[in-house]
Amino acid sequence: MVDMLPGVTKNDEAFDGVVWNILGQTYTLKQESDSSMAWHAVFPPGTFVPPHVHPTQDEFVYIFDGRLDLVLNGEKATATAGDVIRMPMGIPHGLFNNSAGTVKCFFWVSPTAKLRGLFERIHNLGDPAEVVRIAAEHEVHFLPPQG
Fold it and tell me: What predicted TM-score, i.e. pTM, was given to this entire model?
């Protein structure tokens, strides 16, 4: 069991020193417990998280800078600075930086479930098929591309 620890994770620090490279984005862990996990994310132009489902987690994103295009439960939307994206468990969603600028945002999920283990396994992994396979083992299910 991982209980939440009191304290402050400074702007330029990572919780436990953990930083991941996931699908070309940089994820800096800011908090982790059994009940939730949070990370700062940087999406360079052209990067994305393909449509997927978390069957056991609610997920949220707060946008600091830039614009994310998203597909949420089959509907297209856009989120910009100051917006919060709400992605309830079981609802398909994908996030895309289609802009020329970098997106900076803050993610959190509840509960944590197997997400940290997934990020550790796919850190620096360049094979998308392997990312999809490993994700399924960690309760994240990528959807087939739309044709």
Answer: 0.94
